[in-house]
Every structure is written in C-alpha cells, then in structure tokens.
Amino acid sequence: MEAYFEILGYQYKAYLNRYIYIPFLGKEKIGNDIYIKNIFFFKKEKLMILGNPIINNIKIKARIIKHFRSKKLIIFKKKRRKGYKLKKGHRQYLTQIKIISFEKK
C-alpha cells in the first residue's frame, strides 16, 4: 500500500510501516497519533484511487517518533574582487513520523 499526501504545504509518498521526515509539528507530543486527510493518490495491490483534488474517504494514521534538528547547511555568499564574504549556517527543525495504517472513514 502506498499513498501520496500533503502536510504543511509539502507533498510526500507514504508506505506502510515506513518513516518520513516532515516539517516541525510543535504542538504535537512524541508518541501521539496524528491523522492525515489530504491524500491525493492511494494504491493497494490492484486498486488505485486518484483524488480530484483529494480523496475524502481515506485517512492516514501516523505516530510521532521524535522532534529534532537536521544537519547544518552552510550558506556562503561571495563577490569576487570586492572583499565581500558571508558565511552562515542553518539547521531546520523536523519531525519524524511512522506510518501506522491507512483507514477508511
């Protein structure tokens, strides 16, 4: 089983019992279950459902595993022959979720 869904403005592909890293869900606590309702595409063996734009009768149950910060990304800007250099780092807050099940409403 697989599904394509949208959460916080980003689209992801979900498989059963797989882990996904999504943008930070600050209000949710570790161990809580969340339900994702914005599903665009669902596939189960020979059954395929395509939303127009979303599928209303299927939802994804996921469990929050942990909140963390990603690896540091270095932002480096330079203008040649001007002596201008700028180096910054950025670490994005992320949430790891595990897909538990696909449920019908």
**Radius of gyration, CA atoms, in whole angstroms:** 19 Å
- Sum up the overall morphology in one term: elongated
The proportion of strand residues reads over 45%
Structural class: mainly beta
Number of strands: 10
Order of helices and strands: EEEEEEEEEE
Rounded mean pLDDT score? 95
Task: List the strand order in the largest sheet.
Answer: 2-1-5-6
| Uncertain runs | none
Give the termini distance in whole angstroms.
17 Å
Count of alpha/pi helices: 0
Question: What would you call the quaternary organization?
Answer: single chain
Which percent bin holds the helix content?
A: under 10%
Largest β sheet strand count, sense and barrel closure: 4 strands, antiparallel
> How many separate domains?
1
Protein name: Large ribosomal subunit protein bL21
GO cellular component, one term: ribosome
Function: This protein binds to 23S rRNA in the presence of protein L20.
InterPro entries: bL21-like, bL21-like_sf, Ribosomal_bL21, Ribosomal_bL21_CS
What is this structure's SSE topology?
Blueprint: E1 2-7, E2 10-15, E3 19-23, E4 33-36, E5 39-44, E6 47-55, E7 58-69, E8 73-79, E9 84-90, E10 93-104
Antiparallel strand pairs: 1-2, 1-5, 3-10, 4-7, 5-6, 7-10, 8-9
Pfam families: Ribosomal_L21p
Function: This protein binds to 23S rRNA in the presence of protein L20.
Subunit structure: Part of the 50S ribosomal subunit. Contacts protein L20.
Write a brief caption for the model.
The protein is mainly beta. It has one domain.
